[in-house]
Design goal:
With 448 residues, the chain is α+β, with helices and mostly antiparallel strands. Among the domains are: 167 residues, Longin module (Beta-Lactamase, 2-Layer Sandwich); 122 residues, DENN domain, C-terminal lobe (Rossmann fold, 3-Layer(aba) Sandwich), CATH 3.40.50. 39% of the residues lie in helices and 19% in strands. It contains 16 helices and 14 strands. The strands form 4 sheets. The protein has a 5-stranded antiparallel β-sheet with strand order 2-1-5-4-3, with helices on both faces. Strands 9-10-8-11-12 form a 5-stranded mixed β-sheet. The protein has a two-stranded antiparallel ribbon with strand order 6-7. A hairpin with a 5-residue loop joins strand 3 and strand 4. The chain is globular, with a radius of gyration of 23 Å. The N and C termini lie far apart (59 Å). It comes from Caloenas nicobarica.
Length: 448
C-alpha cells in the first residue's frame, strides 16, 4: 500500500510538471533530438560507453499466510555499498517498486507445470522526473512437477529493447543450467561499454560442458528506433485506427491500451510513443500498470498507460475524464472523444494512410528493421510538412539566445486546415519542450 501511494504521488507530480521539469521527465522512447541534429540521442539515456545496466534482480512469488502469493526480490546483482543517505532511500524505493511491475497481474497465482516465457518492459519515474526502464523475462524455472514462474528483470536507463531481449535470452539459457552461471555473464556485461549505434560489443562467457562462448550484441544503426517494434502495432490495429491514436497522442490526451499479454502492451505502447518522433511524450507513461495502481486512469492530466484486459470492468467503473480506450486484442477503439477523425489535416491523413497500408501489405517482405524505418519516415514527414519551418521563426539575439515567433510561424502556413492543426499543436508540452531546445541550440559567434 505504501509503495502504491508513493507511485501515485510521483505520477501526479510528474503529470503537473511543466517546462523544464517536464523536460527531464521525458520518456526515453523516442528521445528528444536537438533540432537540426536528426538521429542523435539524449546523452542522458544513450551515451555510448556507459554501463549496460544498473541491476539484475530476480523476482519470485512467495506464499503468504493467507494463501496468496506475493512477488519478492530474491536475488540482486550487484549489491550496492557505501551509498549516501539520499541514494540509499532512492534505491530502496526502486527495489520496493520493481516486484509490482514484474507481476502487475496481482496475487492470483498458482503453481503450474507449463508456462510460455514472455518478455516485456516497464518504466519507473523517480520523484525528480528521471526514468529507468525495466526489461523483464518471465519464465518457469527448469524442473519437474508444479512450480511458480519467476521474473528476471534488468534495470537500465538505456532504451534498446532488442538488445536487452537478446541479453535476456542468454540469461534464460543460463537459468536452465544454474543460477551460478548467470553471475559471470552479467559481470562481463557490466564491465563492457555500451556500444555506439551500429557498433557491436562482444561478451565472453563460460558455460559448463559448452566451453567459452562469444556473445555479440549490436545496436541498430538508427538509434531512435532501437526501442521500437512497429510490426506489433500493425498486426493488431488497422492503419485507420493507428492514425486516430496518433492524433490523440499528438494533442497529449489520455490514452488507455488494453491487452492480456504484457509483451503486447509494452511493445504497442512503445510503438505509439515512437510515432511522435522527433517529439517526446513527457507526461505519465506506464506501459504496464500494476493492479494496485489502476486508479491512475482517474488522473486529470495526460497519460499513456497499458492495462491487462482482465481489469477492463474496473477501469470502466473509474470516474475518468475523457480518454481514448484501445482494445489491442480485438483491434478496436472501445471509447473515444469523438473528434479523432478531424484532428489531422485530411490530405496528409490520406497520404499517411496510403503509406501505412503499403507497409501493412508488405509485412512478409520487409524485415522488422525495414518496417520500423518505413513507418517512422511516414510520421516524421508529417511533422516536417506541418512544422518543419520552425527554425526560420526563431529570432536570435547578439548573445546567441533565441526567441520563437509563434504568431509569425503559424501565419506562414498557407493551408487553412494545416494552420488549424498547428495552432493546437504549438500549445502542447512536446512542442514547447522541442522549441526550448531549439532556442538554446545556436552557439554565439565571437564578435557578434
Amino acid at each position: 500500500a505504501s509503495i502504491g501511494n508513493f507511485f501515485r504521488r510521483s505520477l501526479r507530480r510528474s503529470g503537473r510538471r511543466e517546462g523544464k521539469e517536464e523536460a527531464s521527465a521525458a520518456e526515453n522512447n523516442p528521445s528528444r533530438v536537438p533540432p537540426g541534429k536528426p538521429g542523435e540521442r539524449s546523452s542522458v539515456f544513450y551515451s555510448a560507453g556507459q554501463f549496460f545496466f544498473e541491476y539484475l534482480v530476480v523476482v519470485s512469488l512467495k506464499k503468504m499466510s493467507d494463501g496468496r502469493y506475493e512477488p519478492k526480490i530474491t536475488y540482486q546483482f550487484p549489491k550496492r555499498e557505501n551509498l549516501l543517505k539520499g541514494q540509499k532511500e532512492e534505491e530502496e524505493r526502486l527495489l520496493q517498486a520493481i516486484p509490482l511491475f514484474c507481476f502487475p497481474d496481482g496475487n492470483n497465482w498458482a503453481p503450474v507445470t507449463e508456462f510460455t516465457s514472455e518478455t516485456f518492459s516497464f518504466v519507473l519515474t523517480n520523484v525528480d522526473g528521471s526514468r529507468k526502464i525495466g526489461y523483464c523475462r518471465r519464465l518457469l524455472p527448469s524442473g519437474r512437477g508444479i512450480r511458480l514462474p519467476e521474473v528476471f528483470c534488468i534495470i537500465s536507463c538505456l532504451g534498446c529493447f532488442g538488445l536487452f531481449s537478446k541479453i535476456l535470452d542468454e540469461v534464460e539459457k543460463r537459468r536452465q543450467i544454474s543460477m551460478a552461471v548467470i553471475y559471470p555473464f552479467m559481470q562481463g556485461l557490466r564491465e563492457s561499454p555500451f556500444p555506439a549505434p551500429g557498433k557491436t560489443v562482444t561478451i565472453k562467457s563460460f558455460i559448463p560442458e559448452s566451453g567459452t562462448e562469444l556473445i555479440e550484441l549490436t545496436r541498430p544503426v538508427d538509434a531512435h528506433l532501437e526501442h521500437v517494434e512497429f510490426q506489433a502495432l500493425l498486426q493488431r490495429l488497422s492503419p485507420h485506427l493507428i492514425l486516430h491514436i496518433f492524433a490523440s497522442a499528438v494533442l497529449e490526451r489520455r490514452l488507455i491500451f488494453l491487452a492480456e499479454e504484457l509483451s503486447v502492451l509494452s511493445q504497442c505502447i512503445h510503438a505509439v510513443a515512437a510515432l511522435l518522433y522527433p517529439f517526446t511524450w513527457a507526461h505519465t507513461y506506464i506501459p504496464v500498470v500494476p493492479e494496485c495502481l489502476l486508479d491512475t486512469v482517474c488522473c486529470p492530466t495526460p497519460f499513456m498507460v497499458g492495462i491487462q484486459m482482465r481489469h477492463l470492468e474496473r477501469v470502466l467503473d473509474q470516474p475518468m475524464e475523457e480518454a481514448l480506450i484501445v482494445d489491442l486484442c480485438k483491434g478496436k477503439i472501445l471509447r473515444a472523444v469523438g473528434d479523432e477523425e478531424e484532428i489531422l489535416p485530411i490530405k496528409l491523413q490520406n497520404e499517411m494512410l496510403t503509406s501505412l497500408n503499403r507497409h501493412n501489405n508488405n509485412n512478409n517482405v520487409h524485415t522488422s528493421e525495414q518496417v520500423n524505418a518505413l513507418v517512422s519516415e511516414a510520421f516524421v514527414q508529417f511533422f516536417v510538412r506541418m512544422v518543419g519551418h520552425y527554425a526560420s521563426h526563431i529570432k536570435w539575439s547578439k548573445n546567441g539566445s533565441g526567441t520563437f515567433q509563434e504568431r509569425a510561424f503559424c501565419k506562414a502556413i498557407a493551408s487553412k486546415t494545416n494552420r488549424k492543426f498547428v495552432k493546437k499543436f504549438v500549445k502542447t508540452n512536446m512542442f514547447s519542450l522541442f522549441i526550448e531546445e531549439a532556442e538554446k541550440s545556436r552557439i554565439p559567434q565571437e564578435g557578434k
